[in-house]
Amino acid sequence: MNRFILAVTASLLMTGGAQAGVTEEDIANDQSMTNQVVTNGMGRHLQRYSPLDTLNTGNVKNLVPAWAFSLGGEKQRGQETQPLVYDGVMYITGSYSRVYAIDVMTGDEIWQYDARLPEGILPCCDVVNRGAAIYGDNIYFGTLDARIVALNKDTGDVVWRKKIADYKAGYSYTAAPMIVNGLVVTGNSGGEFGIVGAVEARDAETGELVWTRPVIEGHMGTLNGEESTMTGTLNATWPGDMWKTGGGATWLGGSYDARTDTIVFGAGNPAPWNSWLRNAGQSNDGSGDNLYAASRLGIDPSNGEIKWHFQTTPREGWDYDGVNEVVAYENRAGEQRLATADRNGFFYVLDAADGGFVRGVPFVKDISWASGLDDNGRPIFVEENRPGDPAAAADGKKGDVIFASPSFLGGKNWMPMAFSQRTGNFYIPSNEWGMDIWNEPITYKKGAAYLGAGFTIKPNYEDHIGSLKAVDPDTGEIKWEYKNDAPLWGGVMTTAGGLVFTGTPEGKFLALDDETGEVLWSFQTGSGIVGQPVTWEMEGEQYVSIISGWGGAVPLWGGEVAKKVNYLNQGGTLWTFKLPKSLAMAQ
Ligand code: CA
Fold it and tell me: Which CATH number fits the domain that encloses residue 53?
């Protein structure tokens, strides 16, 4: 197409009067508008459930590839993106802060954007990106040097570009941004570097900051360029100055519960990992809880004020980040609920109205650090399974080594679970593994790892680490389990056709029966799957897409788990499948 035609088209659009592109209404109704996917999570409630049933348990065996798209180049590593689909175009992000626009019918590239990353970025856990947001005529995504970029969705040209935080201090960005009422809402990454987690909202048109909300007590929020309120109460749950480098990275992004007009974000581990440095009294009376690290926060989207919090792991000491996604749903009795499956191995159901604890059950087998939860959802700690205090060691350098399960990579990590409106169950991609862990002395140094801990990760079972589980949120019952040799690291999607989709590091893209866990269809994608599936409908046919490209945190951490994954090949291919009309009725 020549420039003249482009210019004419653009001027026609601008004089047309109607608002161009994706609207708040499109975003709010993403789940029911099955010809598009304009949110991360297939709806800001993050249910990852499609009401489409054209493709179902009876005909999924006829699902065939429509096209594949290579991300190309030498920049491979983990591909964790969730595709967006809008107006005939698919948008994906790639490793090393790249974005691609692709013709959704043919798989042809329309444009590509490469962020120019500086030397010295500090991504802790691979150079991944988990997806973009779309609003108006813009695509939004975050970069490994902690910036947020708005691109024109038709050209890939930069509309604006803003710094979230200082990458030299360990900040980065990997989550999909979220759009709420014209605001671009982001968190930050860097919890292993003594950064301070925060949630920020910007005007989507201009990129100007509207509000900021640090998630560690003692830090000041802002609203419209001025100080707003302090987060929590200074030194209520943190000793001395430890809150200043207190961690709590909000690295997985958030969800939005329209029923209560609440943004829900999780906060990662408190820093450093050595919990003895964050609890002056070494007591369990709440004075060393380190709020709001390892917590979920309900936030008012209009001003960034915290409405409620629920802390999953007070005085966290095992790297059990509290960031895992919070899914808004209605249970079988019609009650408004939130659910989350934490790194610490417990699955929590909360009251959507105020984040109040309703129920918590283990979703992995061998939790060692807590014997259960009390009536408020607070863990009942097994004190001897906290890594020992190095100050109590003979040499003062290495505390007692303990075995903890789950491992620091969690009963579940970032990979999103799905809720099915058809069954009322959650489908949780979990891992059964533990670790030897010990604490060491540490002092904060800008841009350096701030752990004060060492660890060796190991499988809990010979025959599997990965375990996809169907969990009944009303009873906590595990309805079925699909075991996988390597650790699961990809997202899950459910459909009204009775299907559960996910992928494995071994490269298989799977469709399982939502009632039984039986594998009904599988396809070898050529590299490990750590991405997130989506489905949509186009010209009467149902499509499913998944990105393949092995990487993420697992292959970086060695231990005995390395044996399960060190033979896996990298890659970078987006696969799109369809159920052809001619085969939709076939059984
Ligand atoms: Ca962490």
Answer: 2.140.10.10
